[in-house]
């Protein structure tokens, strides 16, 4: 009989390096689901969620080709907490269902759910163990500005909207401090992977 894979939640603040960590786990053969991808799947044209969003916010949240105009939607909810809550109440359960379906297909001993909002969205409840990729805030800001060419203020605004480091770290079973180079980071991922393969149900 095959045992169902246990689920590792992988998260980290903006610029922490969680994408590099996620990629290396994939290279090691671990089944991975990205919550951001699931969030895109649920609002594709033809999906009921998109219809509800248009009904609620009006047709100007659609692009000419019928796809969701994310920038337009973001600008409507960015400053309005009430509207953001409405959208989250609609999407979070649907995203959760997509994630569960994808995780269920895993062939590896454990599967990973990577999500920048793992803690805030309650998605950590879908997981058995949480790995937080952490980095000093100054380094997060430098990396993000270099990657997205965004301003210092923009990065600070995103950092504020994401769970505080304390909140994230308080949910962590494992913490990977990413303040060195990529080679070191990959070695750490391999060390964690070897450890995770020894776990049953994600608990030591």
UniProtKB/TrEMBL annotation:
EC? 2.7.1.24
From the UniProt record, list the reaction(s) this protein catalyses: 3'-dephospho-CoA + ATP = ADP + CoA + H(+)
In which compartments does the protein localize? Cytoplasm
Gene3D superfamilies found in the cross-reference section: P-loop containing nucleotide triphosphate hydrolases
Name any Gene Ontology BP term. Answer: coenzyme A biosynthetic process
> Which positions bind ATP?
15-20
Q: Which domain of life is it from?
A: Bacteria
Pathway-wise, it operates in:
Cofactor biosynthesis; coenzyme A biosynthesis; CoA from (R)-pantothenate: step 5/5
InterPro entries per UniProt: Depp_CoAkinase, P-loop_NTPase
Keyword tags: ATP-binding, Coenzyme A biosynthesis, Cytoplasm, Kinase, Nucleotide-binding, Transferase
Pfam families in alphabetical order: CoaE
Identify the enzyme class: transferase
Q: List the GO molecular function terms.
A: ATP binding; dephospho-CoA kinase activity
Gene Ontology CC annotations of this record: cytoplasm
The free-text function statement in the UniProt record for this protein reads: Catalyzes the phosphorylation of the 3'-hydroxyl group of dephosphocoenzyme A to form coenzyme A.
Protein family (similarity comment): Belongs to the CoaE family.
- State what protein this is by name: Dephospho-CoA kinase
Q: Which organism is it from?
A: Pseudomonas leptonychotis
Its gene is coaE
């Amino acid at each position: 009989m095959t045992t169902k894979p246990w689920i590792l939640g992988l998260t980290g603040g903006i610029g922490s390096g969680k994408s590099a960590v996620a990629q290396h786990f994939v290279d090691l053969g671990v089944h991975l689901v990205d919550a951001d991808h699931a969030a895109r799947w649920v609002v594709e044209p033809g999906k009921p969620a998109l219809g509800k969003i248009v009904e609620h916010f009006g047709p100007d949240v659609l692009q000419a080709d019928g796809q969701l105009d994310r920038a337009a939607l973001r600008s409507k909810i960015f400053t309005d907490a009430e509207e953001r809550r409405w959208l989250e109440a609609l999407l979070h359960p649907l995203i959760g269902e997509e994630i569960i379906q994808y995780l269920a297909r895993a062939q590896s001993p454990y599967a990973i759910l990577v999500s920048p909002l793992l803690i805030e969205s309650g998605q950590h409840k879908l997981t058995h163990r949480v790995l937080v990729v952490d980095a000093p805030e100054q380094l997060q800001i430098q990396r993000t500005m270099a990657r997205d060419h965004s301003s210092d203020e923009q990065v600070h605004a995103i950092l504020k909207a994401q769970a505080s480091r304390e909140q994230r770290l308080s949910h962590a079973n494992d913490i990977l401090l990413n303040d060195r180079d990529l080679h070191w980071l990959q070695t750490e991922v391999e060390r964690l992977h070897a450890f995770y393969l020894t776990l049953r149900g994600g608990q030591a």
